[in-house]
Specification:
Layout (H helix, E strand, L loop, with lengths): L2 E7 L20 H17 L7 E8 L7 H15 L6 E6 L6 H10 L3 E7 L3 H7 L7 H11 L5 E7 L6 H13 L4 E6 L7 H7 L8 H17 L3 E4 L2 E3 L6 H7 L4 E4 L4 E4 L2 E5 L3 H11 L5 E6 L2 H12 L6 E2 H8 L3 H5 L4 H5 L3 E3 L3 E4 L1 H5 L1 H6 L3
Parallel strand pairs: 1-2, 1-9, 2-3, 3-4, 4-5, 5-6
Antiparallel strand pairs: 6-8, 7-8, 10-11, 11-12, 13-15, 14-15
Helix pairs in contact: 1-2, 1-10, 2-3, 3-5, 6-8
């Protein structure tokens, strides 16, 4: 089975208030960028022996477009040479709205990227300022227009629902502005205050007031309906797309497909094993410089058969269509309800799950309370 390739680029101009990812919050100089790039390419060259065949590539972060286009092109070239990534494959790069002009997007297309994920997050000026985003609302449509002129016909927007002070009127302005850009894809993240973040620090001290869960649930349902009416259908809990524009890379995470991650803090999954890299710039680069391309690995875990099946079940339940029971039996030798039915009994009783002879899936209420369902499988 072809793998997906994920490359973590840690550089960012700022660390946003909600960000809990492993990033390096500064625009890198040539020496710092070059050091990271060489370590990354060494890891990509060493990671799979014999080389795996790849059919998707995703550059995330951080903000990949903080690096030079020439550096990003070398990453694409490595994916092609080492992993056989075909021309025309889904190759996604994340960008912030203030990063590039039309010629910059054209350069990304020429480098081999076919899909752009634009970190809009909100169209409200006050929210963007509170988030610490390095752009204003007007930069988002400018960036979308520049990306179109630069050759991108597959545009995804990231949005965050449930920021402190959320109101229906404020969210609807963001929703309307997002629809006006006619994106092919939208990733909608309901805010979770987690990890060591500036927002988490303020929330723990009572300095912010998060919106009520019922309000967020109502706005989520409204968003599903509004995007659906615009031809952008929900195909996973947090992801919406026009027909045929679903993220092929992200689908791997929900269908128990293998993926390889490169760069600091990146995670991989292959052959029933999960493994991950060290989380800091200095430790990552030094490990590879000293010990070679595999030396940045920080740990691994081999899943038991039951763990493997449980993970396949709860990630599969994230999809709109749920889990095909026949396919599950063919792949894993057991019906999901035979093994996990007792653990899911409360979810069925609460109306969060439904099952028939063909499939097991979340109800609309179950989508809103999916973490409660998944917790039963962990």
């Amino acid at each position: 089975m072809a793998v997906g390739l994920y490359v973590h680029v840690p550089f960012c101009e700022v660390k946003c208030a909600y960000c809990h990812f492993a990033i390096d919050p500064r625009r890198p100089g040539a020496d710092r960028e070059g050091r990271y790039l060489e370590a990354l390419l060494a890891e990509m060259a060493a990671a799979a022996t014999p080389p795996a065949s790849a059919d998707t590539l995703y550059l995330g972060g951080g903000t990949p477009t903080v690096m030079s286009t020439a550096s990003l092109a070398r990453i694409v070239d490595s994916a092609r040479r080492r992993y056989g990534l075909p021309d025309g494959a889904e190759a996604t790069v994340e960008a912030n709205p203030a990063d590039l002009a039309a010629d910059g997007y054209r350069a990304l297309r020429d480098a081999g990227f076919s899909r752009l994920s634009l970190g809009a997050q909100s169209f409200d000026e006050d929210v963007l300022r509170e988030m610490g985003r390095p752009h204003d609302a007007a930069a988002i449509p400018r960036a979308a227009g520049a990306a179109r002129k630069g050759g991108f016909d597959n545009l995804s927007l990231d949005l965050i629902l449930g920021w402190p002070g959320e109101t229906p009127a404020r969210w609807r302005r963001t929703l309307d502005a997002a629809k006006a850009l006619a994106p092919e894809h939208v990733s909608l993240y309901v805010l979770e205050v987690e990890g060591r973040t500036a927002l988490g620090y303020r929330a723990a001290r009572g300095l912010v007031t998060l919106p009520e869960d019922d309000l967020v649930a109502d706005l989520y349902r409204e968003t599903v309906d509004a995007f659906g009416a615009a031809g952008i259908e929900r195909y996973e809990i947090s992801n919406f797309a026009r027909p045929g524009r679903e993220s092929r890379h992200n689908r791997k995470y929900w269908s128990d497909a293998p993926f390889l991650g490169f760069g600091l803090s990146a995670h991989s999954y292959r052959d029933g094993r999960r493994f991950w890299n060290v989380e800091t710039f200095g430790a990552y680069c030094a490990a590879i410089e000293k010990g070679g391309g595999l030396a940045a690995r920080a740990g691994e875990r081999i899943l038991t058969g039951r763990e493997h099946r449980a993970e396949a079940l709860f990630t599969g339940l994230r999809r709109r269509e749920g889990v095909d029971r026949g396919d599950f039996r063919c792949r894993y030798g057991v019906d999901p309800l035979d093994e996990h039915g007792p653990a899911l009994a409360d979810a069925f009783a609460a109306g969060l799950l439904v099952a028939d002879e063909r499939a097991l899936r979340l109800t609309e209420r179950g989508v809103l309370l999916s973490n409660e369902v998944f917790q039963a499988l962990i």
